[in-house]
Amino acid sequence: MSGVDPHLARQGDDPYMSFPLRAPEPVPGCPECERLVCAEKLADQQGDPSGATDERVRLRAHLAGVHGAPSLGRQR
Length: 76
What we know:
Elements: H1 6-9, H2 31-45, H3 49-67
Helix pairs in contact: 2-3
């Protein structure tokens, strides 16, 4: 075995079991969703993958808290 946890490396149709997670899908017309997506893109452009990840986490929390959505959508 290569030392990779097979649960982490699993790829498939189940969004809860796939790694890495798909980027969340913002709700069209929501200013906070748009702000978080812009912040993610800016962090990515500045070479800050940790900051970009933080913004995706914030977007997921916003989507769950405000829009009631699990948001496992957008493919890159």
